[in-house]
Amino acid sequence: MQSTKTSIWFLVILSGLMACTSLSTDVYLPAMPTMERQLHGDAELTITGFLIGFAIAQLIWGPISDRIGRKLPLFIGMAFFVVGSIGCAMSQSMSEVIIWRIFQATGACVGPMLSRAMISDVFENSEAAKMLSNLVIIMAAAPIIGPLLGGALLEIGTWHWIFWLMAAASAFLFILIFFLPETLPQQKRSKEPMINSFKSYFVLIKDAKFMKYTLSVTFFYIAAYAFITGSSFVYIDYFGIPSKYYGFLFGVNILGVAALSFLNKSLVNKFSLNSLLITSSTVAFVAAALLLALTFFGIAGVWGVIIPMFFVFSMNGIIASCSNAAALNQVPQEMKGRANALIGSLQYGSGIVSSAMLALFTTTTPLIMSAIIFVFVFLCWLAAYLNK
User: Fold this and answer.
1) Domain around 44
2) What GO terms describe the biological role, i.e. biological process, of this protein (predicted)?
3) What DSSP assignment string belongs to 351-380?
4) In this structure, how many other beta carbons lie within 10 angstroms of the beta carbon of residue 5?
């Protein structure tokens, strides 16, 4: 990094690219019940389709970025994101939306994946964890503003407008990439044949320590996506909360993530990544158990979901940063693009599990969502504890 000014803009642009996931999902969450009624299909499958494309495409982009650098794949990915968003906006059936969501994801995945790779190119160990926490703090505005903006657009227009917004935002990100430095110089790029690059995924999977850290955050993301996918139905359809207020209920969780990410910047200087991961996953597990108990017995109504879910979701500010940094510490420089691809593929692809499970039920109730969250937060804690 050449200067503080450069560092700030570097982080700001990477935060925008990291926000591709939030931009692709959170902004249209308030529209899902409306889309389901108008298009006569399961709106959860639009998230499932997106996550399938998101997971698979990362495994392809990872080796490519290790060979040709980070910026060119970012340009191509953002172009795909623009086209996919326009396709969704012009869709007339749920099946069309799902197909275009898959295509959209093949580009959207590049932003978060290569943002993490660029951080690991430049920073190491606890410094990388601090920088990842910085990204989370800066990008926290996206999932807060997203549902609010989506709800506001529904008040004045149709759900199609939301995807036009995605197209405009991704086009703006395409322009911002011009201002990023290339963080992977020629001498550090992979020289091995592409087929060997793909084989290296098996090497990573066999690395027990790398996989335990990766699985810990993967299981947490399954729980998080159960909330992301199901919360609009629980709040809007089950509890009868107007869609324009949904963004506030969702956004309070993101404020918790941002606060914990800010705190994590100090904690990584005092405690090991492993101890922070175990502690944060333990807090999330206790909160998930409370969430399940309150929804099972029907206690406290909507507050029985809002309060414990805040503590579960907020732990992402520590769990994601520490587990990602700890996992990447296990791999050499020339494999970090592929390692990030595998981490991202498992993290976001795991959301297929929760969105598909929710889609199996004709109605999404607080109990169904809470049970899924409890099971996978427990597995997150278990994976973290096994690295002790």
Assistant:
1) 9-178+194-386
2) xenobiotic detoxification by transmembrane export across the plasma membrane
3) HHHHHHHHHTSSS--HHHHHHHHHHHHHHH
4) 9
